[in-house]
Amino acid sequence: MTAHTIETASRNLHVLNKYEKGNNSIPVFVRLIFLRIGQIDTRAEKFQAHVAIEARWFLNSDNDENKILSTLSMDDQFRLNNGEIIKLSKDFPENNWYPQLFLLNIGQDCKEEIKYTIKKSNSQIQIREFHDVNASFYSKFDLHHFPTDIQELSISIGSALFDSEVTLDTDSNRPSGFLFQNDEDYSLDKPGHRRKRSILTIACHAARRADYFFWNGYFLVFLITTVCFSSFAIPPNGVQFRIAIACTLLLTSIAFRLTISNALPNISYLTLIDLYAIVSIFVLVILCIWHSIIGTLVFIYDEYVNLKSDSYWARIDRRIFYVLVSLYIIVHVAMGIWYYYVPISRKRQMKELDKHYRRIINESVDKNRLSIGSSSNGATKRELIV
């Protein structure tokens, strides 16, 4: 028995003991399994998902137990006493207590199926409520590092009952997770945030696969900006051609920037690809300004017609070219280093957390049951189902 398994089972037992010591709130242990993640709509800040939700609670009242047992046939009662799981009828919620769970951030296109089962172990009756939900869910996205962002796809589970009647908690012995491998645009990490409050939120992390945006976003903007430096091949006295090239590429870059913005929701901050596009636009503007300045100086000093390659203004123009290209390269090197140590580093951290989570699951996969003894006063043992 691993230390982690003992710790998580003790946590659930603590919640149950808290109820028995006078707290009328019934503890309900909840876990959520992501069966499938569909389309993740960045602009609408929602995602499609097929999830399975399991809630379980113990019956601590003889009246409740007798009421439920009276609805079972003799054969079902015999199987129940032998530890088998019995499926309850659909009218169970009409005649018995249940936590009245609902999903807070669910969309309108919802397909949900609910069923109930009963299981008996060590003279304790446990009720399980299963929700099979296929719907869209709304989730606030953080796009600061777009397109190398990691999104928290969260599902919030609440109860229509007051806190004094029910306490929702994560099922530490039966961890949440997902049962699929890959998605088209994202790679997924195991659920990481579990916040205990009156509303239970379970989330997984989706790391965007940024290849598409690197080639169709960053790379195209990089090419557009880099091509503008070719205008220095035209002598300074051909300023009209230089400015024509720079302005054409500037308008192209602005139009491309608007195309990228249409793929994102209306947010009050700039994403990484926004910042890169804006910096590239500023580079093009600086080139336009310099071409105007050098053309004006050549015209003022009467070298517009007889400009030679070794003239003063031609040498100044070449030096400005070297300076601008050097700064352009330095900015990209600095940006590459920052990418490696911030957004990409965060992805590496999420992968390490995912490996740690998998190790925990592998340690407890062969543990079907966990028995915890009560205090030394001879009290009966309580068995928690893993």
TrEMBL record:
One of its GO terms (molecular function) is extracellular ligand-gated monoatomic ion channel activity. This is Uncharacterized protein. Its main location: membrane. The keyword Transcription regulation does not apply. It is a multi-pass membrane protein. The chain crosses the membrane at residues 212-234, 240-260, 272-300, 320-341. It is found in: Membrane. InterPro entries: Neur_chan_lig-bd_sf, Neur_channel, Neuro-gated_channel_TM_sf, Neuro_actylchol_rec. Keywords: Membrane, Transmembrane, Transmembrane helix. The keyword Transport does not apply. One of its GO terms (cellular component) is membrane.
